[in-house]
Amino acid sequence: MKQQGQFGVYIHWPFCLAKCPYCDFNSHVREGIDHDLWRDAYLRSIDHYASLVPARQVESIYFGGGTPSLMVPETVEAIIDRIQQKWQVSNDIEITLEANPTSVEAEKFRAFREAGINRVSLGVQALNNSDLKFLGRQHNVKEALKAIDIARENFYRYSFDLIYARPKQTLKDWQEELERAVTYTNGHLSLYQLTIERGTQFYQDYAQKKFVVPGEELAADFYNLTQDVLEAHNLPAYEVSNHARAGDESRHNLIYWHYGDYVGIGPGAHGRLTMEDNKFATREHRSPEIWLERVAEQGSGVHPFEGVPPEDRFVEALMMGLRLRDGVSLLALEREAGQNWQDFIDEDHVNQAAKEGWLVHQDDCLRLTHEGLLRLNAMVPYLLRERRAQPAVVAA
Ligand SMILES: C[S@@+](CC[C@H](N)C(=O)[O-])C[C@H]1O[C@@H](n2cnc3c(N)ncnc32)[C@H](O)[C@@H]1O
Ligand code: SF4
Hints:
single chain, alpha/beta, TIM Barrel, 2 domains, 3-stranded antiparallel β-sheet, 16 helices, binds S-adenosylmethionine, binds iron/sulfur cluster
């Protein structure tokens, strides 16, 4: 098994101004955050991981959340500096910060650039005010567009997110919104189909029939329309929900999808680390207060590492790789697990799926077609040995 590969660092900032009703990320609303305490906890955690996996080159740093644009730029700068002190970093390292497009946060973009950020990802979510309100967002369309302008002035690379297949949204609405959105892009756009996550406000509202979301067929139409519009604008999907001009893909997310190694720091963050040919899954305490306490007491807020057995390595790498337009290398999967791919994947099912037009098996590569990506969640269990379910259409 091969140890070295791409390596990134993920920093999770767990706070938001308000909780959006659809969101199940580890995000919390808190008054009076002690920024000095938080900065020190991140720095100590970086030291901890650097002592465990010192000989790696960092290709990417990603500040995610929560709302990391609420961090003070001094904390962001201190984290980037410490990572550069502790690890070798790539010359063209990508350093992304997720930002919410309120005016207050956009005003900080310049300071974030000076702190070392070279890419931002903005949570625009919708380009009409009534849907922004429905989604519980703190910004309006005007503010979002202004934030995109400020991002363009400060960063050569930026992206933004939209959520589609919203209640009452028609295909025509979405097409118009998407065409408009494309005019504000610079090489990268993330488009997520609204999902109703357990434990969210929307989960309750949906159960109480306060709104309806598109059914399977309409959801598939939304997905197909999205692909058509973005392909026509040279922004094809390189991953289920992520579109980019060639060369503008998010390098950080590609590390996940290529099943590379990454350190995950901050409440609820997870990571994957290869050490002496063994892969470990890491998971930090979810609660911000407990995480902070553990770091103060023990130098790290991580739970005990869990070894990832070969079969799980194979399945995880397959799940990640099939999300990509370019698919997954069977050789890479075999290297991951130390066994033949046929030990895990049912070859008859590969052939059947290819016949149905869901996937292409060419040389060493398995890749899903558009039709296959629509059934993504069901494809992996279908391909694996032992499970026999036929994939139904599921929203990608
Ligand atoms: C880590 S989240 C949030 C980042 C940032 N705090 C924000 O809200 O803009 C990244 C993206 O996931 C998407 N997302 C989160 N929950 C979703 C859901 N239930 N359905 C669809 N997309 C979702 C949103 O587009 C969001 O921008
Ligand atoms: S969607 Fe973003 S801003 Fe809203 S609660 Fe989730 S992490 Fe926070």
